[in-house]
Amino acid sequence: MATKRIGILTSGGDCAGLNAALRAVVHRAIRNYGWRVFGIRDGSMGLMERPLDFVEFDLSLVTGDMLRLGGTILGTINKGDPFHYPMPDGTFRDRSSEFVEGYRELGIEALVVIGGDGSMRILNQLCRQGGIPMVGIPKTIDNDVAHTDYAIGFSTALDVAGEAIDRLAPTAASHHRVMILEVMGRDVGHIAINAGVAGGADVILIPELPYTLEGIANKIADVRAEGRNHALLVVAEGCRTETGESITKIQSGGEARYGGIGQYLAARLTDLVDAETRVTVLGHVQRGGVPSMRDRVIASAFGVHAVDLISAGRLGRVVAWQHGQVVDVPITDVANITRAVDPFGTLAQTARGLGIYIGEMAS
Ligand code: F6P
């Protein structure tokens, strides 16, 4: 029987733990099944380039150092949807057939896609169009992939955000300030609420819960009444203004990204709470760095299970982490579905129980 050939790619924003997942896939595929593994460079681009852009992995390329390495050695993209590919002249072209042709040219029999919910949707569509067997591995610091308690990258991002609060707290206390930390998360508040609870924030704002400036000011007044003249506020980048506008910036490359809600709040709160405010925007430091131990463990388990799924012919599935176990779910249950913070869930109730202001329940 001919040796099976599989491909693997990373798609969407990078995060810590991607290389650990690549390593696990290569180890399992080569050691256990004797397959050949081809790493496709820059997400879907590697199959659209001519010549194709890929590397064949062998075990010497996936040493233990991969566990400690942030980012993705394959490269990635978080724009350039092959169905709606931006051309230099400002127009868009459907390049999906080039991806499918590239897959055929490489002669692989299945594809492992490491991506978030958006990448899963696009890759799933591409694979269906081309009859390409695919399995998915969820990654994103936002932790918003459905049906998994953890996506690769979240744990490291949370550690970074938590450490940032630990580092801001002494300045808040020494200068009697309100320190505002803006964290990433796109449309969800998993990083914010987890880091805020872990770091002892007084106020945590997440996109899932509306807030009022008055509510924040009241909380800060309560803190003062309790004898503390400083406060910590964590805000998720995707939070809207009180009147419902999201704050975005056009980045080089022309795409809008969240950013600026921390400054907005600082400008409004300074007079309202009669305190000096300072804003820290954590940004991409949450994505890089040495992966946390949890991310390495989850990525390794995901990689091994993804290969086992291919071996078992259980395709069109995404691996997931549920109650301390690696499981798998249909990709259609995950693609483009966002897992938000549950306003009545454990984290939100814990925050409320600790007296943290997390906004108001929508009436
Ligand atoms: O989805 C991951 C993420 O880091 C978000 O938290 C953030 O809003 C976005 O990507 C930033 O994207 P970029 O790297 O394109 O600025």
Question: How is this fold's topology laid out?
Answer:
Elements: E1 5-10, H1 18-33, E2 36-40, H2 45-48, E3 54-57, H3 65-68, E4 85-86, E5 92-93, H4 96-106, E6 110-115, H5 117-130, E7 134-138, H6 154-175, E8 178-183, H7 190-199, E9 203-205, H8 213-225, E10 231-236, E11 248-250, E12 256-258, H9 261-273, E13 277-281, H10 293-311, E14 317-322, E15 325-330, H11 346-353
Parallel strand pairs: 1-2, 1-6, 6-7, 7-14, 8-10, 8-13, 9-10
Antiparallel strand pairs: 2-3, 4-5, 11-12, 14-15
The protein binds 6-O-phosphono-beta-D-fructofuranose (F6P).
Family: Belongs to the phosphofructokinase type A (PFKA) family. Mixed-substrate PFK group III subfamily.
Main location: cytoplasm
EC number: 2.7.1.11
Compact description:
This protein is α/β, with parallel strands linked by helices and 363 residues long.
How would you characterize this protein structure?
By secondary structure, the chain is of the alpha/beta class. It folds into two domains: 5-152 and 291-322, Rossmann fold (3-Layer(aba) Sandwich), CATH 3.40.50.450; 155-287 and 342-354, 3-Layer(aba) Sandwich (Rossmann fold). The protein has helices at 18-33, 45-48, 65-68, 96-106, 117-130, 154-175, 190-199, 213-225, 261-273, 293-311, 346-353, and strands at 5-10, 36-40, 54-57, 85-86, 92-93, 110-115, 134-138, 178-183, 203-205, 231-236, 248-250, 256-258, 277-281, 317-322, 325-330. A seven-stranded mixed sheet has the order 3-2-1-6-7-14-15, with helices on both faces. A four-stranded parallel sheet has the order 9-10-8-13, with helices on both faces. Helix 5 (117-130) links the parallel strand 6 and strand 7 (134-138). Helix 6 (154-175) packs across helix 7, helix 7 runs parallel beside helix 11 (346-353) and helix 8 (213-225) packs across helix 9 (261-273). It is elongated. The mean pLDDT is 96. It binds 6-O-phosphono-beta-D-fructofuranose (F6P). The site of 6-O-phosphono-beta-D-fructofuranose has 13 residues, from strand 12.
